[in-house]
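Help!! Second protein's tokens look totally different from the first
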Amino acid sequence: MTPRLSHMDYTIGWVSALPIEFAAAQEMLDEQHESLLQSDDDANIYTLGRIGEHNMVLACLPAGQTGTNSTAAVAMQMKSTFRAIRFGLMVGIGGGVPGENADIRLGDIVVSQPEKGHGGVIQYDFGKSTPKGIDRTGFLNTPPRILLSAVSKLQADCNRGRSNISAHIAKLSQLPKFSHERAGEDILFEGGYNHIKGGTCVQCDDSRKILREERAENIPEVHYGLIASGNQVMRDGTTRDQISLEFKGVLCFEMEAAGLMNSFPCLVVRGICDYADSHKNKKWQPYAAGTAAAYAKELLLVIPRADVLKTRTVDETIGEARGYKESVMAEPKPAAGLVFENYGSIRGKNILQGQTMSGGPNTLNFS
């Protein structure tokens, strides 16, 4: 254990929801640091350490208190105690969404990435209740630019065969609980077929299994795209597929990220431990937590420390965003009445066309 550093020496936060995820995160540290004093208002218990050049703050949600609100509370306390934090990582397990566009298997890794008009994470259970269902409102922020740039660099490294993700997984697998062999068989059932009963699928109908081609290598694949976040566990294949279709392709479901994106700039990394259906169990959780942690470590190793130090702190980033929003809200609004646009001369007449504030069209014709 190294000499004690100061609170201002730590620049990156890492949040876990479950103890098994927290254990995987701790195993990724290159060295662990002594704990620091914190205020009575901060109920988090931290693990401090270093990954590559970066001093890290690791925290886990209180036992039994998962969900977006609990995640937000942990992150807010973290950034208040460690004010030099620039950004965070939300790393752990998630339920995969198998589909034609993404051959997602258990143990694979899903990383939030902006696409289809979304910032990378969508809160699928937030909005207005209507007779046709939920009218989803709001927008969750994209990950910080420095993290998205690191994602591009790591993708390029993987394409060139220069990634060490597998090496990080192999090191973690030396702990029996995190080994791939202990996870068991990867079984996928049809989306509309529900689990019979019990903790295994022994009594489920084998004819409803989806047969998939075996991969040439037993190495987790990394998928980039949308992650669906909500306050309830997704364990229904039909609902899973409906929501994925609504957002034109969701890769996984989880329960924490929506509580962070607008108040704690971060990237979300999920290891797939089930298929978000009624057949889910916990056998794959340790291995999937390990694959997600391994990706997160490799991502941090491609980010230069100098670039992190040049990045605004979380408080500065949130403050700037809040100031911009307040300035937009303070801009003068158009007066009630008619708003017109001059279309110029048409057949010798000047034409103005516009709308009333209620949306009705109005055209004035001046000779």
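Here's the second one for comparison:
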Amino acid sequence: MESPASASHELILPLRHQALEDFFFTVLMATFDVDQKFLGQFAKNIGSDNPFLSSVLYKVLGLSVLLTKKLVRARKLRRLDTTRDTKSLQLYHHIIWLSREGLVLVEQYILRMVADYVELKVLAYKLRASFYHNFVLYHNQPSINRTAIPSYTAPSNKGKATERSSLRSSPVLEIPMEGGPVRNPSSLPPGLTPISIPKPSASFLLPAIDYIPAASSCFTMAAALADELIPGSHPLRLSVKLEYAAYLYDCLHDGDASRNLARQSIRDVYDAEAGMDDDMFEDAAFLVGYLGKMMKRGLSSSGTTGSTPRNGSVATPSTPRARDISYSDNGIPPAIPSPGTQNPI
């Protein structure tokens, strides 16, 4: 009979995992909200100067809105039901298709026409990284989590597949037969031909490969452009860093890099000297709140990591550039900055 302690432990672990998944999903929705807002503004503002680019931006905006709705529905499923092919699998197929079409529009049209637009250029590279992020989440091979689309494999054939593999691996017995036909001991009996590994069900939409290198490269480029072209307090720069931090934690399983990126992004906000209107200030404060949570994600109550980092070492956070900001004992900028700081958030 199970003890109460072991039973409660089995209940706590799924709840904790569910809470982590909810936080990751909330972070993605926060970045999508800011990206769609700026995407609509850019499409409207450049309509008279560049109508074609404006029309493509509106198309990407529509795809992004539809994709967000599909992601919300997929999040409610929590686990893909392989017995409901017509509903659950089609939902994940739709997510991959929308991401693929959005990526085509960004790479073939938008990236080639945004050289003269500073903020739109950052947003375009960030959108490309977001689409690859969806491929890693839902269509990566090998899969990084249980939300990816499985291959078509009937559960009832597990025993038969095991039996057949054991028969193929076992030595062929040579039974002497008198007057019988000549037998080839190396050939398999009828019906035991080699079974090919089934491909993922969404491979007709997109090749089933490892998209992590491409996604990592896109996030690195988007973050570098954001650091170079726009100030640290800009909502687009914070959106890039927030999704990048979530990608590092949930896809690459590098908690130290994710927390350091979130910490440095908050410091860059306090270092920024550029002004902003009330609308951008509200978006920036909204994203900084999630970056603060990302900075503490995976840490125990004592402030140490609960498990050993993937690279085996803890990176030391870089020294802040602003000299007029006082820091607390844990290295986090105070909620109320010093009077000399311009544009505090």
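Reply: Different proteins will give different token patterns, so don't panic. DSSP finds nine helices and no strands in the chain.
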